[in-house]
Automatic annotation (TrEMBL):
InterPro entries: AmpC-like (IPR050491), Beta-lactam-related (IPR001466), Beta-lactam/transpept-like (IPR012338). Residues 48-367 form the Beta-lactamase-related domain. The chain crosses the membrane at residues 499-519, 540-562, 582-604, 616-636. This is FmtA-like protein. It holds the Pfam family Beta-lactamase. Keywords: Membrane, Signal, Transmembrane, Transmembrane helix. Residues 1-41 form the signal peptide. SUPFAM superfamilies: beta-lactamase/transpeptidase-like.
Amino acid sequence: MLINQKPSGNVERRNFRPMRTVLAAAAVAVAAGALASPAHAQEPADIEAIVTEAMDEHGIPGAMVAITSGGATDTYGFGLADIDAGTPVDPETTRFPIDSVSKTFTATAIMTLVDDGTLDLDTDVNEYLDNVEVEDTYPGQPITLRHLLTHTAGFEEAIIGLFAETGAGDRLEESMLELPERVRPPGEVYAYSNSGLALAGLAAADAIGADFDEVLADRVFEPLGLDHTEVNTGTATPDRPLATAYALQDGEQVAYKRKAESDYPAGGIIATAADMGAYMEYQLGDGAPLLSADALAELHGPQFHADPRLPGSALGFYEMFHGSTRMVAHGGDGPGSHGLMTLVPDHDLGIYIAFNGDGDDGAAAFHAEEATRAILDSVLGESSEADGPAGATAPETAAEAAAGTYRSTRMNESDYSNLFLAIGSDITVAVEDDGTVTTTGLSFDPEVDEQHWEPQGEGLYREVDGTRLIAFGANGSDTMLYTGDGAYEQTAWYERTDVFLAATAAGLLLLASLLAWPIGNLIRRRRGRPAMRPGSRTAIVLAAAAGILSTAFIATMAAFLADTDAFIVKVLEGAPVVPLAAIPLLVAGIATAAALVAVVMAWARRWWTAGRRLHYTLAVLGAVVFLAAMEFYHFATAPLLLFT
């Protein structure tokens, strides 16, 4: 469905009490905390201006907002939930996918079971699982719920089939029967993992003999009165509407069909702004009626830091900082939906902002964070402090900045999805003569590519004219770059995007150069000159076939990527588009293997001139280079997945 309509300026408010009253309480709390910058209350019009400015500037159809303070919540709906129907966002009844904010619900439900003694955060998760078993890849180092809830279990990323359409219950278990590979010992490195959170949910469900959607309902949704919150079943009714998610493509809003997801503990919950407000009120309270105060404190407390001077992980939450003011938060991103929940426990403040569109720059998640930061600046006062814990000391693994190329630890080395995760994600680090550091590709802001960082001592760097921090460290022999919400490994030269692109282009060009040979053969025939011998003709056919088939694969992928969003959604849903598209590549591999034999025969039997033999050899080697580059990301053998 293609629509070309700008977001409406319509705004719906429910449970409204003047924002100056709610946020004045936060301002009093800030004053009591003696912050350097005085806080002041955010007016309702300011909230609308902050959010709708992002919507209008970036083509986002609708938004829902909840702001909680002092046990009260104000909710807002902006723009349209459905463009075709002209349905406005109603914060009381319009539900948005909250995507990975679901992880905080999963962690909360699990902590209720920890609180009553059913689960233990530091027990081998295999003790709780019925039909799924985590391999003992690192003997004596089992994966625990604490590892799973802090993204330190050591799994590689798995995105193929992440949004596969399923129900709940046993289908969660089915999606976990083939777990991602364990590629690191647990507890060492932060590597964001949807599969890890889904596995934690399954372990909790198995421990009490229930489906995890029932665990969520019985232990979180119902006790908190979240009547419009549930696991997404892929359906909506007039009395329980679900906002349509949109991608903005060539100026037109394209609707996504959001389906039920197999890994729903990691990202499958839908909720209204009103319910998110009630949920934040609970998280900012004393734990009643779900958790003891100690359990709630552990849920929000720091659990893992790659570097204690940077933000780290809580259980199902991650840390953020406004200067030295600690916050716990979680973002959520899916096709056409993006949001951020931020809790400031010391100031009894919660903010949730969600959009139902990717926006013109595909960076709605960034705009949600920017809107949140604007509200925080208004309520808590702008801070010139670095965004990190005050007084933290450097770890033993701290290291000075190392120039090179870095890539996120959120990678997959086992299947073709790694191409989508890796290509274009390179982060480059340059160490300048004055000791400052320049990075490219690290910024969350789509308009900023290059950033500059000043040394703060012992491998810590602060952004010039900014408040963000990064740090360098070592994990064994690996050089690491840490940002608080991410960890990046230094890569080998052959893993760089530019090397991959150069290898594929060079290989195809060498193969394409052989096209001159059949043309020359036709000219010789017309002039009455002898044609090539049968064996040599076969050699040319093999190499030409490899080139044509490889080009066909590239053309097919280019056609798919013309609508990148739709293509990625198909991969996330588990559709076999890549294995099918790569069939020509597999056949090209067979043709190339035969052409390598032909290379040996050409030299042994002296086919053609020496120059032509060399040309043919280089062309076949070009095919080898191209196919090797493809297989580095598991594309050449992807069709074999159709038979597994």
